[in-house]
Amino acid sequence: MSANPVRSNMPDLIRGSFVFATLSAAAGVMLGALSAHLPDRLFAVPNGRDMLHSAVEIQMWHALGLCILSLNAARLSPKLIRLSCLCMAIGMVLFCVPVTLLALFNLKLGSISIGRIAPYGGTMLMIAWCLAAASALRRPFPR
Questions:
Q1: CA-CA to 75 of 20 to 30 Å: which in 3, 6, 42, 51?
Q2: What is the pLDDT at residue 130?
Q3: In 3-state terms, what secondary structure has residue 108?
Q4: Is 11-138 assigned to CATH 1.20.120?
Q5: Quick one: angle between helices 78-105 and 118-138, nearest 10?
Q6: For 60-92, what is each residue's pLDDT tens digit?
Q7: Residues whose CB falls within 8 Å of the CB of residue 63, separated by 6 or more in sequence, listed in order
Q8: How far apart are CA 140 and CA 143, in angstroms?
Q9: What is the pTM of this model?
Q10: Burial class (CB within 10 angstroms; exposed 0-12, middle 13-18, buried 19+) of 13
């Protein structure tokens, strides 16, 4: 028997989702401080501070949501909650990273702004939340 029975019952994808979420929250705190203290002239685009602030806000809310989903995975439909957590992690990366890179570096992929990836991340986040709702509907909560 494991010294930590909760950990042994947590599937690897769910545990990985929780670790990803907590590290994303830590990165969000760092990026939030950067957003608050970086001089305006160091942002690569005119509204860079606002862009970075939005990316941090989305990152922090979804990190919190992913922590909550991960910790409650045993109460939800296993397949759907795993898919939800995976979509949420992918969505966070596809939304927050391009917006952050655009704000700080105005990064381009060829002639296309990296910010054009962000809507795909936003779509993945919406899908993740819908899957989370479906996972709760598919399996009754224990009493």
A1: 3
A2: 98
A3: strand
A4: yes
A5: 160
A6: 999 999 999 999 999 899 999 999 999 999 999
A7: 21, 22, 24, 25, 28, 92
A8: 9
A9: 0.88
A10: middle
